[in-house]
Write a structure and sequence with these properties.
Elements (H helix, E strand, L loop, with lengths): L9 H20 L8 E2 L33 E4 L5 E5 L8 E6 L3 E10 L4 E7 L2 E6 L3 E3 L3 H11 L6 E2 L6 E7 L4 H10 L4 E7 L6 E5 L8 H7 L7 E7 L18 E2 L12 E6 L5 E5 L11 H12 L5 E3 L21 E3 H9 L4 H12 L2 H14 L22 H11 L3 H8 L2 E5 L3 E5 L3 H5 L3 E9 L3 E10 L2 E8 L4 H15 E2 L2
Helix pairs in contact: 3-5, 3-8, 5-7, 5-8, 5-9, 6-7, 7-8
Amino acid sequence: MLSRHVLRALPTLLVLLVAATLLWSSSASASPAPSAGLERAGEALPALDAAPAPIVITGVLALRDEPLAPGTRAVVRADGGCLRLRDGAGTSAKVLTCLPEGSSVLVMESAQADAEYRWQLVLAGQLVGWAADEFLMPESDPAACSAAAVQQSSSRPGLTGDLPERGVGAVLWGGGTTSGVISAALLRGCSARSLWAQRAGAGGLMGFLTRVPEWVNRDWQAQYGNGIPAGTILFVVCGEENQATVPIVLSAAGAPTLVGTAPPPTIAGLSGVVIDAASGAVLYDREAHLRLAPASLTKMATAVVAIEGADTNQWVSNNSVDYRAMPGSSVMGLRPGDCFPLRDLLYGLMLPSGNDAGLAIARYVAGRDDDFVRAMNMLTTRLGLADTAFVDPHGLGGRGHYSSAYDLAMIARYGLTLPLFAEVASARSWTAQGSRSLPLHTLNQFLTSYPGADGLKTGYTEEAGRTLAVSATRDGRRLIAVLMNDLDRFPDARALMDWAFTNYRWP
């Protein structure tokens, strides 16, 4: 637990930062010799820029059983320490990072052995490297899931530590994005002016400033553009009291120009919109700001909040959600006692539109449904959206749960800037591997019927009718369309996309 003393002035922060720098330096210098396969967590090492060339299985293979099959998800079993990921097969190869106990990896199609270990090529987050496979256990093994669930309990999502409304606070981050840190701080009453953390490699301190041009933060983005790892110590400088929020500002390209003369197609829905993803420009608008029930389009916001606010490779032990108690509901199939990586729950949320997955995600990320919903509404506030209010993480709805076609399109636009969101939203199928294997399939017919389709989400309740958010890319240009209460949502979406791609010209 971090100190509970509130730091009120920047000079005090700098003293603390220097002390932290010395602490990190001494920790790094005390790390074990590189000849061992395992070590204690805490070594900060650079990322791998490119995967090594494929290598066929060679050398001594009589170490134990056959290598893990390509495509297997495995969990690190490191006796409470961490497992080195290297840029080659052997203990003399460069160490890329150290994977904590319980980390999830994807086994790739190469294996090699030496006199000490058998090595397998694995994907760990954004890194590709070699790991000694005797310290990997298939995630489908219930024992591995149980061990991972126990391990993750010591690293919870969000911010650990106190933040003042004004001044400086030191916190431990549970994993996620820079924007996720800022949102979590706002929910604590801190409007972040800047974040500070240890610079990788050369050492020293590095800052992220809010409300400044993107280029100012290029060093921070180079280190943390793909996310801030769990366990990172951050120093947050909280702003003036009159700064109620920190807006999310997306890069804006030049807007396309209407050059065609064909009128837009007529849709059956009460509301609809088409936007250009790059610029945010509205290309088609039918009552786009009308407040309506969004149904499961809500889950786009749920996914964004989860990706930004947690380490998606962490395991989630489900103790409270049972799909069998949700008759007539779209579900992933979770039962009490199940354990899956958060990443798999995101697929269960988005593909089969699992309401059970939505609840499990909310309770893992925020602890309580209400606190997670507060984070969802903070997202819409930061995006500057005026026609949305959420009351649950799945979209079954209730009094005060509403959104608009425009707001949902803007949530989708932001979500698609997050690589994992884009990956999940474009998937047609997935197999969740945890305490059980659960095959998952998308309900989005647009993905399988429209050329260039790459997302997004379907929805339905009696109140909302049939809702749909879609995206498609043609010649490098992506469009997003949202339809609300539309009985002909799939053909209407195809017609709108065809019209917009045909009648607009991009700069």
